Every structure is written in structure tokens, then in C-alpha cells.
Amino acid sequence: MDTSTVMMILAFVAAYFVWFRSVTRTLKGPKGPKLWPVVGSLPGLIENTSRMHEWIADNLRACSGTYQTCIFAIPFLARKQGLVTVTCDPKNLEHILKVRFDNYPKGPTWQAVFHDLLGQGIFNSDGDTWLFQRKTAALEFTTRTLRQAMARWVSRAIKNRFCPILETAQLEGKPVDLQDLLLRLTFDNICGLAFGKDPQTLSPGLPENSFASAFDRATEASLQRFILPEFIWKFKKWLRLGMELSLSHSLKHVDDYMTDVINTRKLELVSQQSGGSQHDDLLSRFMKKRESYTDKFLQHVALNFILAGRDTSSVALSWFFWLVTLNPKVEEKILIEICSILMETRGCDTSKWLDDPLVFEEVDRLIYVKAALSETLRLYPSVPEDSKHVIADDVLPDGTFVPAGSNITYSIYSAGRMKYIWGDDCLEFKPERWLSEDGKKFEPIDQFQFVAFNAGPRICLGKDLAYLQMKSIAAAVLLRHRLVLAAEHKVEQKCH
């Protein structure tokens, strides 16, 4: 290699390091994750995969709630596509999720990843497409009849399936996988509410349901796409390789199942006009609208709500029951509240308390249980992180400049664990922080401090339904059983 070539290479390397130094100086949060030449913060991400959410929280604590990093420190990419702003500051969250809502959509990357499964459904769309679905769904979610329908589905599943399984396990002295049972229970409930068909995954023997399995595989394969650059997973999709092949097969099964459901419902709605049975699920409600929706649109409506309402509630309940086992005083207060309500509604004969799950009006009065569930979601939100795409250059309230084309990740997990937001006891499980001084009223906390149900225009429509389901299940279990963690079972957070 001649001298001129060596000098050229050295000049190129020197220029790169000058550029790299200038980029690292402009990033917000000098105490954030270490940046390496070319690979950026990727080594830190890989090293902390098993504790990702806690690692992000550590970085945010060190940087007063906001930091910036480069996934790839490469010229022309680092200042935009490679730049990620990470925050949990409530003022920044309000700015992103409400004040400048239109500037921070889900973006093309997110939509491309989930398009095959969710299409242009409410959780995978932006702009007018999202707004139209949001307005339509919002009308349905505010109706009392939908809450009553959810109460019926939950009550039936608790009485006929969930409680008998737990009782059998207790009599036989066998441990149960509570998270699996809760996942099956919430899946049956959300399918019943979304399209009026019970997949019966919580039947005796816990059978495998082909639709549930296909939906799980499709969701997992879609999430795998986030790990790979878009051109790679699209190339694998074209070649039908690996998870992309699995996704294709799973989507075919989901599509066939939903086509059958929709066709059956159309026939039932025709017979209903002639005096047949009534349906109050979301799918039927959309079908009864004057607008004529395509079958594919109706399918995506149902699948979007299943994805939103299934794992979220079951994960929250799993953490809730674990935290209750660690805090016997909280369990005692929950039982006192449940028993006090049942004493008023069902009398002193305690045998009548267990005949049926709590009805809608009884569940509505569970103030302390709601506080304990909210405290659970503060510490262990079902969706720990979320991200947005930046349309135009902007400055966040804390002074952070975010360029167009970059991405913002807001850490919901971290937002619940910051001392400057929640006080020195932020890591304690303390339901009382959600109650009035006399302990008789539930006092909601600012939605931009508590982002477990999202916030702003995209705040969760099913929030009240989620609380209804979780409170019903929590009361049914704790009234009948004292839970104990199985010997040598390790409780840990899934970070991937």
C-alpha cells in the first residue's frame, strides 16, 4: 500500500472521529449509555437485553429524565434515522402525546412491522384513518351496554371455568401456572367481547386452541421484525424464510377463522331482524352501522382489540397477585373491602358470598382494589416502552432538540419509578397513594405521570373495561384462596 493511500485512510479515520466527537457532544444526556464509533449504543443494548427496562430507567435517572443516543453512529444516519430520544419526563410526554400530537405519529416503521397482522386497524394507523376508527369505537365504548356485556363474559368465565380449576388445584395440592390461566381467561373474554365467539381456551384440561396459537405466533413473528432492519425482514418475507414463513402460515389460519366468524355473524344478524338472538359484541356493533365496511376492515377491527385487550390485563393481574403475596397488609385491606361490600349486598350468610362472582355494581365499589391494580401498573406497566416518529424538527419542554426523521421512545416503566415524579417511596408498592386522605375515594393521578393506559388523544378506550375485568378476577381469587409462590419459582420480567 503506497503512502498516499495510507494518508487518505488516516485522513478519513481522523475525519470520522472529529465528526463522531461533534455528534456525541450535541446529544442530550452525557451520562446516558456509552456511545461507540460506528455501532453507537448497540453494545449496551445487547449487554443489557435481560434487564432492558431497568437499564433504560438507570440511564434516565442519571440524565434527569431524558437522554439521546445513536443506534448506529454513521454519518448521514446518526442525526436522523439513527437518533433516538428517550424520555419519561411528564412535561415531555404531554408535549408528545397531546400538545404536538400530529407531529408524533406511530410512523412508517411501526406500521410496516404490524401491517400484515393488523392492517390499517386503530392501533396501527395514523391521521384520518385512525381518527375515523377512534370516533366510531369511542361511541361504543362509552355505552353502558358494552360494560354490561363485558361483565357477563367475565362473570361466566370466572364461575364456570376459572374458579373450578383453582379449586381442583387446591383440593389436589397441585401448583398452577397462574399467568397461563389468566392469559386464557382474558383471551376468552376479549374474543367474546370483540366478536361474540368463545374460543374456550380455559376449558378443563386447558386444550390448545388453533386460533389462539396462530394469533400468538403471528404476534411474536411481527414483533421479531423490530429486531431486524426493514430491508432484511422484507427480503426474508419474499423468500419465505424463518419467522416470516411462520407468520405467513399463522396469518392464513387467523384469516380463515375470522372469515368464518364474520360470515356466520352476517347470517345471524339477518336472522336477528326476523326475531333471532341478539348480539352485543363490537363486531356486531360495527356491522350494524349504516356505513358498509369491508370484511377485511371488520377483521382488522376485531384483531386490533384482541391484541390490545388480551396480554395487557393478564400481565397486569400476574404482577398484581405476585405483589399481593409479598404484601400481606395490602391483601388484608383488599379482603376487608370485599367482605364489607358483600355484607351490605348479600347479607351475613357468607355461604352466599361464593355462589356467584361479584356483579357489576359490587365490582364498581372496589376502590382499594382499583388502587392496588393502579399501583401494580405504575410499577409494572403491561407495555413498558412505546415509540413515536418525528415528522418535523421540534424542541421538547425540557429544551431537547428532536430532528425530523428521528424517533422518540417514552419509557412508561421508568415514568413510574422516578423519585422526582413519585417521591422517595417510588419503588414501594403503596396503593394508598391513589386514595383520598380518608381512604374512601379513588383519586386519579395526572395521565402524563401515569402512562400505563397511554395518554392524550390515543388514551386507551378500554381502560374502564380493563379495570372491570381485573377487579372482578382479583376479587374472585382473593375471596376464595390465599396465593403462595411455588417453591424455587423465579419471578422475572420478560424483556423481549
Automatic annotation (TrEMBL):
It comes from the Eukaryota. Belongs to the cytochrome P450 family. Its cofactor is heme. The lineage of its organism: Eukaryota, Viridiplantae, Streptophyta, Embryophyta, Tracheophyta. Keywords: Heme, Iron, Metal-binding, Monooxygenase, Oxidoreductase. This is Cytochrome P450 protein. The keyword Transcription regulation does not apply. The keyword Metal-binding applies. It is found in: Membrane. PANTHER family: CYTOCHROME P450.
